[in-house]
């Protein structure tokens, strides 16, 4: 999941070198944390959170075959 979020985020931002994605597994769930440059935050979140919601939907669809809940958090 980490790689998927990283590829999506890097394709959206102006500073792909500043994209940092970390992944932690906790039992039956996976937490994916995404950090981007402050100037790129709006591009990752989108208007009314549409881009962030779309990223979460893609990750949820990809994670369905692993039978684990995946949570994507966008950090400042």
Automatic annotation (TrEMBL):
Its main location: cytoplasm. The gene is khpA. Forms a complex with KhpB. A probable RNA chaperone. Forms a complex with KhpB which binds to cellular RNA and controls its expression. Plays a role in peptidoglycan (PG) homeostasis and cell length regulation. CDD domains: KH-II_YlqC-like. GO terms for cellular component: cytoplasm. The keyword Cytoplasm applies. It comes from the Bacteria. It is found in: Cytoplasm. Keywords: Cell shape, Cell wall biogenesis/degradation, Chaperone, Cytoplasm, RNA-binding. Belongs to the KhpA RNA-binding protein family. The keyword Mitochondrion does not apply. One of its GO terms (biological process) is peptidoglycan biosynthetic process. InterPro entries: KH_dom-like_a/b (IPR015946), KH_sf_prok-type (IPR009019), KhpA (IPR020627). GO terms for molecular function: RNA binding. Pfam families: KH_KhpA-B. This is RNA-binding protein KhpA.
């Amino acid at each position: 999941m980490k790689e998927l979020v990283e590829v999506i985020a890097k394709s959206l931002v102006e500073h792909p070198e500043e994209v940092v994605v970390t992944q932690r597994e906790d039992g039956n769930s996976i937490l994916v944390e995404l950090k981007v440059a402050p100037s790129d935050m709006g591009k990752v979140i989108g208007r009314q959170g549409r881009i962030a919601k779309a990223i979460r939907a893609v990750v949820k669809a990809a994670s369905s075959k692993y039978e684990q809940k995946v949570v994507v958090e966008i950090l400042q």
